[in-house]
Structures are given as C-alpha cells and as structure tokens.
Amino acid sequence: MRLRQIIWILWPSFLVAGIAEGLLFSVIHPDDILLFGEPMALSNEGVYTLGFLIIWLFCATSSALSFFVLPKKEGSTEAGSDEPDLI
Fold it and tell me: Which of 8, 26, 32, 77 has the most CB atoms less than 10 A away?
C-alpha cells in the first residue's frame, strides 16, 4: 500500500510540474535568469532540468500535504485508508 501512496503523490505532481514548467519557460528564457546578479553557469537544458525538479518538488509537497489530510478510517493510521483497494 505504501508504494501506491507514493505513486498517488508523485504522478499528479509530475504532470502539473510539466505543465507549470512549460508555462514558466514560455514566458522566461533561461538566459534572463540571474543568480545573485550573475548569469547562471548552466546550459539552457540544465536550467530547464533544474527548474522542472524544483517545480516538481513543490508540487509533490502540495500533493503529499493534501494526501495526508484525507480522512482516516476508524482504527487505521493510514491516510486514505477508507478507499477500497483497486488492485
């Protein structure tokens, strides 16, 4: 069950992070990003990758917080345990 919970958190956050990165980098070009007043020493692909991972981390945190505030089944300590097993 623990693996399923991780997938429930990571998959939607991955999809949203992909959309958010597309929107972000359609407005901002990686060459325009400054770090402490200096251009970043990464290639454009490196900035895209780093940006995606940071956005994915924020989205996964949001998904995890939403998942862990789900109502719990009486007598259970697992979040989302009131859902029937689909597999």
Answer: 8
